[in-house]
């Protein structure tokens, strides 16, 4: 069985590990990160060239199943995967970890988009910890607030004028996040609803410090796709629905 795993996430790497020796797996990365964490097994890097390119790839490589294990905000890739699956009949399973849930001591403001987060920000705080990734900084570039920006690679312009950049890659600890909030006198945190444990410590630290959090909601999934929440559940579906062997 040949499986294409659309990756760039911790779950995609874990899935590739679980499938080692059980299927021929190709993991695909977009190529955004200069020095990416690589999954075990075969890896390809770079876009396919839209839906037509992905359709051609699936046919050329005789892919039996596609698993979309991209980040919950990689909506373009997910839409392309759904369209290519519909066009070729190659089944698609979407591996999407659940989003985060607000607890009683949290102070969260949910917004539907990054633009809505930028619009709300000045009313909530002035020293912002922005954790939405370096690709999304342009949305915040026009704001006259102070930003602590964390990303894996250095941000490219346009970026906020008053900004301190920290280069780091998760997982992050509550101790480390607490220290960042204190050191930079952060009074508001902005995050996508990425879900998962690797980057959840900032939410705990914000709760403890009474710092409000602007949470950007996930884009919707394409209609009718089959969704699983974690890598073991994905393996189970591959076994039960698509005949993945032992
Ligand atoms: P996107 O906007 O949904 O995708 C834009 C284009 O990038 C796609 O149409 C595709 O190009 C290419 N692409 C995306 N993921 C790919 C993959 N796994 N393999 C090959 N090509 C891919 O995606 P994005 O938000 O830029 O995210 C890019 C990657 O970073 C994803 O793999 C995602 O898992 C990871 N990531 C994203 C975020 C985030 O917040 N968005 C956070 C952490 C990690 P073609 O049309 O040419 O095929």
TrEMBL record:
Keywords: Cobalamin biosynthesis, Oxidoreductase. This is Cobalt-precorrin-6A reductase. Pfam families: CbiJ (PF02571). Coiled coil: none annotated. InterPro entries: Precorrin-6x_reduct. Pathway: Cofactor biosynthesis; adenosylcobalamin biosynthesis. It comes from the Bacteria. Signal peptide: none annotated.
């Amino acid at each position: 069985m040949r499986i294409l795993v659309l990756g760039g996430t911790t779950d995609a790497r874990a899935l590739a590990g679980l499938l080692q020796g059980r299927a021929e797996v190709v993991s695909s990365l977009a190529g955004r990160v200069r020095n990416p964490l690589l999954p075990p097994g075969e890896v390809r890097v770079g876009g396919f060239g839209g839906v037509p390119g992905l359709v051609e790839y699936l046919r050329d490589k005789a892919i039996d199943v596609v698993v979309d294990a991209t980040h919950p905000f990689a909506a373009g890739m997910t839409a392309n995967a759904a369209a290519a699956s519909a066009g070729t009949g190659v089944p698609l399973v979407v591996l999407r970890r659940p989003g985060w849930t607000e607890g009683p001591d949290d102070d969260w403001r949910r917004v539907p988009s990054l633009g809505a987060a930028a619009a709300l920000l000045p009313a909530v705080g002035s020293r912002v910890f922005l954790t939405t990734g370096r690709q999304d900084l342009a949305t915040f570039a026009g704001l006259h607030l102070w930003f602590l920006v964390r990303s894996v690679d250095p941000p490219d312009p346009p970026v906020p004028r008053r900004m301190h950049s920290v280069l780091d890659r998760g997982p992050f600890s509550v101790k480390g996040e607490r220290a960042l909030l204190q050191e930079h006198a952060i009074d508001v945190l902005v995050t996508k609803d990425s879900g998962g444990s690797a980057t959840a410590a900032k939410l705990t630290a914000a709760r403890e410090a009474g710092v409000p959090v602007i949470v950007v909601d996930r884009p919707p999934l394409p209609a009718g796709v089959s969704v699983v929440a974690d890598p073991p559940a994905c393996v189970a579906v591959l076994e039960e629905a698509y005949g993945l062997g032992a």
